[in-house]
């Protein structure tokens, strides 16, 4: 039971530098195909922003005594202009928003597709150093942050700048002395209000954190109520909950003082600044219509300057998201290409040679996994890899699939270096049936067809029959259309194994890799799976990682590994006769139970 809740510390926001902005500008290449729509949206944004600048001036004209005289005669030119500007601004704002949203959705769809296709082509080294949660966050949360940049932040930045620059120019034309007075006090008050508001929001987050911690106490104690009562710890839990709720109340009360101070600041500071501008304008003899327009422009400018602080924060988040994405996109990817046809020269016969292979994982250079390993596998041979946990069996399979390349030595296929064969072509002629079968959450049909996406109904059924899977598949009400659930949770271990075998049968590989997975199955499932594996291994080169030595007695060759080195090679009969041999010792340990 946890007594404390660890707060998540947010990552520091990056500074706005020219280098970070250059990375952000790289995103605009995804906008390029939709540049026409984007440019039109910018035009609408410019027009609606300029129309907004006319609003305070027209309101001033509306209260002009001359305008009031026109009103009495049934005609008010300023009023009509004001309505026209408002309608035009609404129309242009609508089309600008629609265009920006359309462009951003299409751009971000292209960006998501590019990031995903790049990520899935990255070498295994990359995935060793990253967590799945982090990568999914990059492709979802980070790109969603960029969506706000394209649809809102960029448009708001341009609009606020137009209002600030245009408004200041108009005010300078009206009265440069009053403008200087206004700029000295009002924008400072607005910006101070923004930062004061952020300070108060931080207290609100602290209250939420403490409330969450208190809720955690409730959740833990109710889930573990048997333990609470068994240890007679009711009073301890009551005290723990009281501490959390009291802390939330203390922070809330402290926040209340600052909220009160904030309200006082708004009344005294911002409204006081507006009163000062009005007083100064009246003392300078500026008329009521011009003074009203001046005050409205001042409020617009102050609000826009305050808004720029929020935009700066949004840009910081966007730059952070961009840097994370660019870090992934800058990773060199594997040379993965679609395989539509395999040239005769690239077709494997199935002969494999390991020549003086040494290897350590990129993330652990100090830990050598394989040391000067050499062996040969002839075409259509069944070769088993045996040894204690951590001996290097799975690493040999990873090197065979070229998930990694050796540090020293070479892997040869039919006498040709693996690096001379196109990666997709090489892997397309191999299939893996792992110990821990991973099934996708769709149907049985989709999981079997993963071995050959264009397979026909008859081919899928034939593969399922050969894998001893057809019997249980056809007994399901939906047959091949049965949903297997996340990671195949709806199926038993033996059923999952047979689906994986059917997938490998359908691929019809030249080299088959089996991480034997019968050890966790009941005897009936083990018999069916082993029978399916035996059928699958016929007529192709097979590499078997053996956990149960009874399943590899008929192997053409058994390679025994220990601490990253080959210590024995031979058939079962040869190795079982070696006095003091590791294979004999492992066999005696298994068969004595």
| Biggest beta sheet summary | 6 strands, mixed
Radius of gyration: 36 Å
CATH class group of the largest domain? Mainly Alpha
The shape, in one word, is elongated
Helix content: 55-70%
**Architecture of the largest domain, CATH level 2?**
Up-down Bundle
CATH topology of the largest domain: ABC transporter transmembrane region fold
Low-confidence stretches: 1-12
Number of helices, where a helix is a run of at least 4 consecutive DSSP H or I residues: 19
Give the spatial strand order of the biggest sheet: 6-7-8-3-9-10
What's the name of the CATH homologous superfamily of the largest domain?
A: ABC transporter type 1, transmembrane domain
Q: What is the number of strand segments?
A: 10
What structural class do helix, strand and pairing data support? alpha/beta
Number of domains: 3
Mean pLDDT across every amino acid position: 79
Bin the strand percentage: 5-15%
Secondary-structure element order, N to C:
HHHHHHHHHHEEEHEEHEHHHHEHEEEHH
First and last CA, distance: 38 Å
Keywords: ATP-binding, Membrane, Nucleotide-binding, Transmembrane, Transmembrane helix, Transport
Transmembrane segments: 38-59, 79-103, 157-174, 180-200, 260-279, 291-309
Domain ABC transporter: 352-588
Main location: membrane
């Amino acid at each position: 039971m946890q007594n404390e809740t660890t707060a998540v510390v947010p990552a520091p926001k990056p500074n706005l530098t020219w280098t970070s902005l250059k990375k952000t500008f790289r995103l605009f290449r995804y906008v390029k195909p939709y540049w026409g729509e984007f440019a039109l949206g910018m035009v609408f944004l410019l027009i609606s922003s300029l129309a907004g600048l006319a609003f305070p001036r027209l309101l001033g004209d509306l209260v002009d005594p001359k305008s009031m005289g026109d009103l009495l005669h049934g005609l008010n030119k300023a009023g009509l202009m004001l309505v026209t500007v408002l309608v035009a601004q609404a129309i242009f704002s609508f089309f600008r928003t629609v265009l920006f949203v359309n462009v951003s959705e299409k751009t971000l769809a292209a960006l998501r597709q590019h990031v995903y296709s790049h990520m899935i082509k990255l070498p295994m080294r990359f995935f060793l150093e990253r967590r799945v949660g982090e990568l999914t966050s990059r492709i979802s949360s980070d790109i969603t942050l960029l969506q706000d940049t394209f649809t809102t932040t960029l448009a708001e930045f341009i609009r606020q700048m137009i209002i600030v620059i245009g408004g200041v120019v108009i005010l300078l034309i009206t009265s440069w002395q009053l403008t200087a007075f206004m700029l000295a006090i009002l924008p400072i008050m607005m910006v101070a209000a923004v930062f004061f508001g952020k300070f108060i929001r931080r207290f609100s987050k602290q209250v939420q954190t403490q409330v969450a911690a208190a809720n955690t106490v409730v959740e833990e104690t109710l889930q573990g109520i048997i333990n609470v009562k068994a240890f007679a710890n009711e009073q301890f839990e009551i005290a723990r909950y009281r501490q959390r709720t009291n802390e939330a109340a203390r922070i809330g009360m402290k926040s209340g003082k600052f909220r009160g101070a904030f309200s006082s600041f708004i009344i005294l500071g911002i409204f006081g600044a507006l009163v000062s501008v009005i007083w100064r304008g009246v003392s300078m003899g500026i008329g009521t219509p011009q003074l009203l327009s001046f005050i409205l422009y001042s409020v617009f400018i102050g609000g826009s300057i305050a808004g720029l602080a929020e935009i700066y924060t949004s840009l910081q988040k966007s730059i952070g998201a961009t840097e994370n994405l660019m870090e992934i996109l800058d990773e060199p990817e594997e040379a993965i290409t679609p395989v539509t046809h395999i040239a005769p020269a690239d077709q494997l016969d199935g002969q494999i040679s390991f020549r003086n292979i040494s290897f350590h994982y990129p993330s652990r250079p100090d830990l050598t996994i394989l040391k000067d390993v050499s062996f040969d596998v002839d075409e259509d041979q069944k070769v088993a890899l045996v040894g204690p946990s951590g001996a290097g069996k799975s690493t040999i399979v990873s090197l065979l699939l070229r998930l990694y390349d050796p540090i020293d030595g070479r892997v040869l296929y039919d006498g040709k270096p693996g690096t001379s064969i196109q990666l997709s072509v090489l892997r397309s002629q191999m299939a893996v049936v792992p110990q821990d079968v991973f099934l996708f959450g769709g149907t049985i049909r989709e999981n079997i067809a993963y071995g050959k996406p264009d397979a026909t109904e008859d081919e899928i059924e034939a593969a399922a029959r050969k894998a001893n899977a057809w019997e249980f598949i056809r007994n399901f009400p939906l047959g091949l259309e049965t949903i297997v659930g996340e990671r195949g949770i709806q199926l038993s271990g033996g059923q999952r194994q047979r689906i994986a075998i059917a997938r490998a049968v359908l691929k019809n590989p030249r080299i088959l890799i089996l991480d034997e997975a019968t050890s966790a199955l009941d005897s009936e499932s083990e018999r069916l799976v082993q029978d399916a594996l035996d059928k699958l291994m016929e007529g192709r080169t097979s590499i078997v990682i053996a956990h149960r030595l009874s399943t590899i007695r008929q192997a053409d060759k058994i390679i025994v590994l220990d601490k990253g080195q080959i210590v024995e090679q031979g058939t079962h009969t040869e190795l079982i006769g070696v006095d003091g041999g590791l294979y004999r010792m492992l066999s005696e340990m298994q068969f004595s139970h």
